[in-house]
Amino acid sequence: MRALYIASTGMLAQERNVEVISNNVANMRTTGFKRQRAEFQDLLYQDLRRSGSTTSTAGTAAPVGIQIGSGVRLAATARVMSQGSVENTGKELDIAIRGEGFFQIQTPDGRTAYTRDGSFEINAQGQLVTVEGYQVVPGITFPQNAKNISINQEGEIQVQVGNATGQTILGQLTLARFVNKAGLEANGDNLFLETAASGPAQVSTPGSPGYGTMLQNHLEMANVNSVAEISDLIAAQRAYEMNSRIIKAADEMLSATSNLR
Question: What UniProt keywords are attached to this protein's entry (predicted)?
């Protein structure tokens, strides 16, 4: 019976949906995390009678046809790149991006990755790095006696060196943006990688037209809405339950057929 297979595709699709929702909820407190949304497509149809087919010798045509679908499949897990809430941390190397753009990060394998996570540190060599020790691009190196770090909205980094009364400019952070930022590939560690779907990175200074600005002592939180996720979870659970009931009903129908005398 076709209903058994169709309902099984529905159960599998909702299982994947719950997995996406669970990942969103698990990362509710992940800095710069962008939630995902499961998107589905119906599968191929079997035409038992095509629309417009002849229904009599007089040439009359069927206004509608008969099509039986074969179920559903997971088509994509689209990433929602909306701005997350910004929280004050009081830490001078925490930077939030307000608006468009990603920080650029040099990975150990030499590739450039991109992130919205601005929780940076200084390593033993004085370099500005992520919490995993990956260097921020362009490279910024702090003197050993640097203090009073200041990062303005345009990403310019200034420090007070030793006993100097004035500020010294160390460097300029830049932001990268993409034509299709939802096409970036998540790589773990709060990092994204460029893909053919995202297009090449377009790099400029913060505050340039189309680019966001930087906010020191702040971090961007995940854009996960707990109420919306729970609502989606309940809907997925009910859909899974209804598909399981269809399988049970189809099984009972087959049982009744096999018991005919």
Answer: Bacterial flagellum, Cell projection, Cilium, Flagellum
d(CA 243, CA 249): 10
Is the domain of 213 the same as that of 100?
yes
Alpha-carbon dihedral 211, 215, 218, 221, rounded to 10 degrees = -10
253 and 131 housed in the same domain: no
What single-letter amino acid sits at 255?
S
Dist. CA 12–CA 10, nearest whole Å: 5
Say how far apart CA 96 and CA 62 lie, in whole Å. 61
pTM of the model: 0.85
73-85 pLDDT, tens per residue?
999 999 999 999 9
Task: Quick: pLDDT tens for 207-229.
Answer: 999 999 999 999 999 999 999 99
232 and 207 in one domain? no
**253 shares its domain with 140:** no
| Distance of alpha carbon 7 from alpha carbon 23, whole angstroms | 25
Residue 246 and residue 214 in one domain: no
Q: What DSSP state is assigned to residue 94?
A: B
